[in-house]
Every structure is written in structure tokens, then in C-alpha cells.
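The following block was generated as part of the benchmark described in Methods. Ligand: uridine-5'-diphosphate.
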Amino acid sequence: MTLERTFIAIKPDGVQRGLVGEILLRFERKGFKLVGLKQLIPSRELAEKHYGVHRERPFFSGLVDFITSGPIVAMVWEGEGVILGARKLIGATKPLEAEPGTIRGDLAVDIGRNVIHGSDGIETANFEIGLWFKSSELNDWNPADHCWRVE
Ligand code: UDP
Ligand code: MG
């Protein structure tokens, strides 16, 4: 396992539905470390860059409309295997196919309102972290109970 960082965003539906605390709790409880967090309303340019890989897909413009429609909570989480680990906490893209116990499995129904984004690999994580955060907005710190989490 290697120490990684991943980009996580609570989408506008998650913020509007008051799910920010619920979602943060799941990442904290798992044992991942929060190293950056801010709330913002993304510009269209930022949203289009973030979802650039989906530019040709039919849902692209609706997705960008939705992501720019209100505040999101953007975060960077750090930990051993956090990229895949976060995807497991999040669950499948289609919430009705996401396992109960996952964020999407527990909290969402519709693919267009699936509450949360998480980077899907190392390259995507590095790209997305750089897109959404300045390095000065990310903190290196050691949790006081670190030795109780990892050897
Ligand atoms: N999406 C959608 N319709 C689709 C596929 C995707 O609205 O048919 C949205 C959905 O919100 C999803 C996002 O586009 O979370 C990005 O799609 P991706 O396949 O990357 O899913 P994710 O990585 O978020 O699980
Ligand atoms: Mg994706």
C-alpha cells in the first residue's frame, strides 16, 4: 500500500440535502485524513475541465449545469490506498446498483443526483487535486492518534 491523496467533492445535491456532515463522518470514521476542504460554486470553465473526459457524452452539458448550480464541498483526503478506498465508500455510479452501506447506496437513487464525486485513479487524482486546490490550501499534519491507526 502507498500513501495517496484523492479529490472528493460533495455535489450540489449533497449540500442542498444537508448531507455534508454525514459524508465527512464516513471518511473520518474510516481513518482517512482530511488535508484540504472548501466550499465553492464552481465556474463553468472549472466544471468543464473537471469532467473533460466526458465532453462527448450526451449527459455532459446537463452534468455541467448541475455541478455549477450551487455550492459544492471540495476536499482532499490522504491515506493508505485512499483512492480506491474512497471509491468503495462512495459506491457504484448508479445509486440503485451501489451496495447498501456505501454513500450512494444509502443516500441516493438517481445517477444524475448521486451526491458525491471521487477520483478514479492516481493520474486523475493528481489532475483533479491540482485543478481544484492551490498547494498552499493543502496541509501536511499528523493526527495525534496516528499510531493507533497504522503500524
Ligand atoms: N452521469 C450521468 N449520466 C450517465 C453517466 C454519468 O449523469 O449516464 C454523471 C454522474 O453524476 C456521474 C458523473 O456523470 O457521477 C461522472 O460519470 P462517471 O462515469 O465518471 O462516474 P463516477 O466516477 O462519478 O462514478
Ligand atoms: Mg468518474
